[in-house]
Amino acid sequence: MIRFEGAAKTYPGKTDPGRGPTGLPRPALDAFDLSVEAGTTCVLIGPSGCGKSTALQMVNRLVVPSAGRVLVEDRDVAGLDPISLRRRIGYVIQGVGLFPHRTVAQNVATVPGLLGWPRARIAERVDAMLDLVGLEPGRYRDRRPDALSGGMKQRVAIARALAMQPKVLLMDEPFAALDALTRRKMQEELLALWDEARMTLLFVTHSIEEALVVGNRVALLSPHPGRVRGEYNCHEFDLSSIGSRGFQAAVQRLHDRLFEPLPEAAPR
Amino acid sequence: MSQALSPPIRPEYDRALPPFVEAPVERTLPLPARLWQQGWLRRGLILLALALAWEALARWQDNDLLLPGFGATLAALADGLATGEILERTRISLTVLAQGYVLGVVLAFALTSLAVSTQVGRDLLSTLTAMFNPLPAIALLPLALLWFGLGQGSLIFVLVHAVLWPLALNTYAGFQGVPDSLRMTGRNYGLEGLAYVGQILVPAALPAILSGLKIGWAFAWRTLIAAELVFGASSGRGGLGWYIFQNRNELYTDRVFAGLLLVIAIGLLVETVVFATLERVTIRRWGQVR
């Protein structure tokens, strides 16, 4: 499971070489409390600048909290070795970030390779992972990322993230750059994947629909700094419920909450 | 849409499509069209046309001292190759070139690696390239002669100068253009230091690095020939530039042309064989350039 306990992050103001620090420190996340139970999916949704990505990156220690703490499986990540932590946590980002000079198989084999697995075991795992994300190994193993469409690239990235069969998977707007049809297909496959492996999934998106479909629970964040405004259950929804009245009502409710103005900050 | 659409409004329709069974259309191109698609053939024709124009101009001029023809040049080149003189000169030039080039490349990578990892390195790189990149390498030759004497040391010094700055500049620009998602991925997998540079930055920036290597090679080759022309032989072992200069002094114009032809040929060879192969097995296969 993942638990945030009063996690906060303030980025220092931008530093311009030559001119020194410019701009004020930017609080990205403040007093952030959230629990994601093991084997459930939680979606963070909110406007730009609400610290969704920052929260995600705290989990695998790409970002270190300025205050508070983050626990993964009841252990404070601050006390864990960041590299082995990251290799145990799957991480998928919008930009995909496949290595352009490596084949699909080599990309998927990144972490097993870094851990020095024997060749046969790596090959076996790579094929299993490609099968899992719906890419026929014989056909795609030796291709390079450039020869794949956006959806396929993201599939490879997911296969790479799942190669160590992580118990925790972080996804930062993984389908945002895909067209609507491909996105729908990928959501379907992700849900099937999750249903099989039941990892703890923390997912960031801008899309209310996607949040309701993917999440068991949705956390709505407010911007500047990011704080949790509310948590909503949506485990009853899946792709087939998109047209239903209940789903539309839930979309509307989240939509209204999302656009509801925040109370004015008290004048200092 | 507040305004009602005015008629006529065409009826909607649904249509059941039969399965698409037509075979893809394909036919063989006529032979001339297929030949014309061969890049080497087109380029060969251009070279042939240039050679013919040269020969025609030379015959019309009819003055071997000023402009020997293509045939005469080839004959002089064949003669030089037969006696082995021109080969020996080329070998001397290329040996010096290789030393200077490799040293320049190593220094450029050291400098850029420093620049991506530290603020001071960045400042150092930008200041040094701003200062030295516009400075022609050949302008440093008098100074080099003063410091290193008449010999290979001076040549290598100017060669390093010719290669280092453009390559460092290109490599650094390439490193800066590496997408954030790839950097993030690298950091996420715990790649640091040299592994980070070697596995994330270099492959992603390879198009820029290769173009820097190409520019560096062209600068180095031209600087070397020019430097040899200026001060030529050290202890009787001059390179290709010295061969050109010497034969001009003795008014063997055909040999001057033969030397120039060889300079061009080597340039072409390195460009089309070495760099093209390097590009084909890396950035073209990886799909970073088309």
From TrEMBL, chain A:
It holds the Pfam family ABC_tran. GO terms for molecular function: ATP binding; ATP hydrolysis activity. Residues 1-25 are annotated as: Disordered. Residues 2-248 form the ABC transporter domain. Signal peptide: none annotated. Keywords: ATP-binding, Nucleotide-binding, Transport. It comes from the Bacteria. Belongs to the ABC transporter superfamily. This is ABC transporter domain-containing protein. It comes from Methylobacterium variabile.
Automatic annotation (TrEMBL), chain B:
InterPro entries: MetI-like, MetI-like_sf. It is found in: Cell membrane. Residues 86-279 form the ABC transmembrane type-1 domain. Pfam families: BPD_transp_1 (PF00528). It is a multi-pass membrane protein. The chain crosses the membrane at residues 40-59, 65-82, 94-116, 128-148, 155-173, 193-213, 225-245, 257-278. Keywords: Cell membrane, Membrane, Transmembrane, Transmembrane helix, Transport. Belongs to the binding-protein-dependent transport system permease family. SUPFAM superfamilies: MetI-like. GO terms for biological process: transmembrane transport. This is ABC transporter permease. One of its GO terms (cellular component) is plasma membrane. CDD domains: TM_PBP2. The keyword Lipid biosynthesis does not apply.
